[in-house]
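Proteins fold reproducibly. Look at a concrete instance:
___
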Amino acid sequence: MKEFKNKVALITGAGNGFGFEIAKECAERQMKLVLADIDENDLEAAVSFLKEKGAEVTGVHCDVTLDAEVQKMVDIALDTYGSIDFLVNNAGVAISGPVWKLPLQDWDWIIGANLMSQVYAMRRVIPIMLKQKTECHILNVASVAGLITSNGMPAYHTTKHASVALTESTSYDLQAIGANIRLSVFCPGFVQTDLHNYERHRPERFMDKSDPYYSSPDYYSGQKKAEFVIRTGMPIDSIGMSVLNGIEEDQFYILTHPIYSTLIGRRVKDMLEGRGPDLSVLRG
């Protein structure tokens, strides 16, 4: 996508973090905005901020882990602006814990937020984009955790690898039918977002805290580790420009942390040579 002015961007998880930064950059490029978020206060603040900057913006309070809520979001975007040219699937959560301890409701939540929300939105929006026959773009926010793996976060890695694979495979399918829709997958490392405060975004249906895991040392240490790596991550202020510049340059994989290139290359080499994960190498 080369032209942005007056095109319509639909962005999930837009109340803070990556979604808000991308929304600000879209506003700078004079796009019309539909911002979706599960947190009403964050959403209202984001919409107010952008309106004060002169942007044309509409907010939608919704839970994108539910297909019906995604349908509502898409309907509002079409009713308000008549088209969707740029879909940003950004909403997501990061939950730690080994597979034998992490409660199943957290698996349901993270799969819904990090993967199925993207599936729901793409199923709804791609047919609209195909009918428009205009130049369109879809950005799925994954993570460098979708390109490499580490210990302690199997659910997060699972969903982020799935997001990367979803984006790659859908790109093949759209190429096969000659669609004028391009895709990108954003795979950043640690950035100073609000991702570690995921509990404040937990939907009501996943609120059962009777499982002993929620009072265990593993749960609290995972939260502390998440807070540390997020707070010491890359400043967020350049993210919006990096992402939009990548889309303008038709980059499929949009990366922000060259430090992980060695680990990505090592993982591919290990695959080709039949080696499994080695924790000592990871920590080294």
